[in-house]
Amino acid sequence: MPSSTELATDAWESLFRSQVSLMRRFTADDIWDPISLREYDVLFTLSKCATRKLRLHDLNDEILLSQPSLSRLCERLEKLGYVTRQPDPSDKRGTVVVLTDDGLAVQRDIGRKHAARIRRYVGGVLSDDEMTTLTALCTKLRLGQAGVVVLDRATDGSDDNPSQA
């Protein structure tokens, strides 16, 4: 019987490799015009907010980019007219990124094409029940990270009972 560490490692490896495989396909799709996949991710994330805006710091929590890279990406999107950047009224040091109507139109246009590709690449392999299960598991994994104990640097990770950090 595999240990908890082996099971967790195997699960992570499977999830990671699946994500890499899918991201390569999505990146190769001929739908990312006039913006890149990363720029689309910013527009998509903003479009999911009721106010169509987020503090740059909060947007960075949702996007897999460093803060300086995200700032430069938002500058490019602003030059294209897809977002505006405003001082945060509650913290003058912060910046709020706002999705414009033009940005929303681009996101929706690309989003329709992207959703069709997702349906083909994911829905073409998994059943409806499997997709529902995958969604539930991934959501549980993402939301559960706040409560996961962080290993201390001195711990080599060789046992299944990490010390409290």
Query: Averaged pLDDT, please?
Result: 92
* Total of DSSP H or I helical runs spanning 4+ residues: 6
Rg estimate, integer Å: 19 Å
N- to C-terminal distance: 29 Å
Order of helices and strands: HHEHHEEHH
List keywords for this structure.
3-stranded antiparallel sheet; mainly alpha; 165 residues
Topology diagram in text:
Layout: H1 4-28, H2 37-47, E1 53-55, H3 56-62, H4 67-79, E2 83-88, E3 91-99, H5 101-121, H6 128-144
Antiparallel strand pairs: 1-3, 2-3
Helix pairs in contact: 2-5
Short summary of the structure?
The protein contains six helices and three strands.
Describe the protein in words.
The protein has 165 residues and is mainly alpha-helical. Helix content is 57%, strand content 11%. It is built from six helices and three strands. Strands 1-3-2 form a three-stranded antiparallel sheet. α2 crosses α5. The model has no long low-confidence stretch (mean pLDDT 92).
